[in-house]
């Protein structure tokens, strides 16, 4: 699997082609951990900041989820 930096570059260039596994790797690298899964949604919590985000489990992810992840990690 590509490095986190390469995945972030791909997220910026092609936000419609990101797989759930790639988004999961980026979120974990930035301190988020999966805290809950119910149905088709997965919640990630950053314990340092208390930030909670929900992502629908689908591949590829919708652009809105990718843009939200980029905003949350400061990219």
TrEMBL record:
GO molecular function: endonuclease activity; hydrolase activity; mRNA binding
InterPro entries tied to this protein: HicA_mRNA_interferase (IPR012933), HicA_sf (IPR038570)
Superkingdom of origin: Bacteria
Entry keyword annotation includes Hydrolase: yes
Keyword Hydrolase assigned: yes
Keywords of the record: Endonuclease, Hydrolase, Nuclease, RNA-binding, Stress response, Toxin-antitoxin system
Alphabetized SUPFAM superfamilies for the sequence: YcfA/nrd intein domain
Pfam families assigned to the protein according to its UniProt record, in alphabetical order: HicA_toxin
Homology family: Belongs to the HicA mRNA interferase family.
Protein name: Toxin HicA
């Amino acid at each position: 699997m590509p490095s986190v930096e390469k995945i972030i570059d791909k997220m910026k260039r092609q936000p419609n082609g990101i797989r759930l596994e790639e988004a999961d790797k980026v979120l974990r690298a930035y301190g988020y951990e999966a805290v809950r899964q119910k149905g088709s949604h997965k919640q990630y919590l950053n314990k340092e900041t208390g930030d909670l985000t929900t992502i629908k489990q689908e591949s590829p992810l919708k652009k809105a989820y990718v843009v939200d992840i980029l905003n949350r990690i400061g990219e």
